[in-house]
Design a protein that fits this description.
The protein is an alpha/beta fold. It has 2 domains: about 180 residues, Rossmann fold, CATH 3.40.50.450; about 140 residues, Phosphofructokinase domain (Rossmann fold), CATH 3.40.50.460. It is about 40% helix and about 20% strand. The chain has 12 helices and 13 strands. A 7-stranded mixed sheet has the order 3-2-1-4-5-12-13, sandwiched between helices. It has a 4-stranded parallel sheet with strand order 7-8-6-11, with helices on both faces. Strand 9 and strand 10 form a beta hairpin. Helix 7 crosses helix 8. The radius of gyration is 23 Å and the shape is elongated. The termini are far apart.
Length: about 350
């Protein structure tokens, strides 16, 4: 009987429990034992594990978060960390590990594989910025939550004739801002991939006001920055074990600039962790389930050092090295679609309406 360890690392994400459930259920056909490694890689350092059974995963499919906990722990931060991981793998008799996470978690998985430890990866991030897969689970839930928030903010923005700035997650890639911004009808979308010109932003917003639209919604990713500014705005200088600072604050800076330049009341809504919490969508439940089953098949076939991935409608596998080699940034064709709905395009449409009304 094989013993398979499963862990969830990095930020929590809707759909994690669906993967865990699928891993357990898919393993049952081979009579394998599934060991839950608590709190990400930290569990392998501390030796904190739990047996996962059919009973323990019953009913977790629709639940957000992760029943085995998570953390941003890097076992390679010091030599002792890796040694403890290696010792505990032997102690618990683990034949393979399913690592569910984003770039940081899977970078650790790759290093472990390169040191001879059997590992397979499952891509998880609400940011959708992991290479090698068309989509990561959690992303669909996040954009659904943000789109609903934008819909709700539209009514209060219109009622009070305000500009409302909505700050969303997106450290280096603006997938959430772009997709939810288009779906929610945002009037400006600012992302890390394209440094913004505050004057151009205000010009587009003024055009709306001049043509009768007395409110605007601006969606900005937390990692967005103005042209010429090399540094993103952070909450503090503290870094996690992977060297990341905590971003946040661009929304307030942007709102202050818009209000000062346009003399229009401007408010900020920072959605924060609301985006990654709660019940996963049907899409994410299905994708997460397919990923979990595929991960077990990789182990069965001894295809280690790989990550399951969505390519079109098919679940395939790619080398972990490919998955973490580069960031998957926003498709500019998609972002350019959003620009059609900014101030300039709407002004031209208004001119066409006036010309039409003169003719008839």
């Amino acid at each position: 009987m094989k013993k398979i360890g499963v862990l969830t690392g990095g930020g929590d994400c809707p759909g994690l429990n669906a993967v865990i459930r699928a891993v357990v259920r898919a393993s049952m056909q081979y009579d394998w034992e599934i060991i839950g490694i608590k709190n990400g890689w930290k569990g392998l350092i501390d030796g904190d594990i739990v047996l996962l059974t059919d009973y323990s995963v019953s009913g977790i499919l629709p639940k957000g978060g992760t029943i085995i906990g998570t953390s941003r722990t890097n076992p390679f931060k010091n030599p002792e960390g890796f040694q403890k991981v290696e010792d505990n793998i032997k102690k618990f008799g683990l034949d393979a590990i399913v690592a569910i996470g984003g770039d940081d978690t899977l970078s650790v998985a790759l290093k472990l594989y390169q040191k001879g430890i059997p590992v397979v990866g499952v891509p998880k991030t609400i940011d959708n910025d992991l290479s090698g897969t068309d989509y990561t689970f959690g992303f669909d839930t996040a954009i659904s939550i943000v789109t609903e928030a934008i819909d709700r903010l539209h009514t209060t923005a219109e009622s009070h004739h305000r500009v409302i700035v909505v700050e969303v997650m997106g450290r280096h890639a603006g997938w959430i801002a772009t997709v939810s911004g288009i779906a929610g009808g945002a009037d400006e979308i600012l992302i890390p991939e394209v440094p913004f010109d505050i004057e151009e932003v205000c010009k587009n917003l003024r055009a709306r006001y001049e043509h009768g639209k007395k409110f605007s919604i601006v969606v900005v990713a937390e990692g967005a920055k103005p042209i010429g500014d090399k540094m993103v705005i952070t909450q503090n200088d503290e870094k996690d074990e992977f060297g990341h600072v905590r971003l946040g604050g661009i929304g307030h800076t942007l709102a202050r600039e818009i209000e000062n330049r346009m003399n229009v009341e401007t408010r900020v809504t920072i959605l924060g962790h609301v985006q990654r919490g709660g019940t996963p969508t049907a899409h994410d439940r299905l994708l997460a389930t397919r990923f979990g089953v595929a991960a077990i098949e990789l182990i069965k076939n001894e295809e280690y050092g790989k990550m399951v991935a969505l390519h079109g409608d098919k679940i395939l596998s790619v080398p972990l090295e490919e998955a973490v080699s580069k960031l998957k940034t926003v498709n500019m064709d998609l972002y350019n679609i959003s620009k059609l709905f900014f101030g300039k395009g709407r002004v031209e449409h208004k001119k066409d309406e006036k010309q039409f009304s003169k003719l008839y």
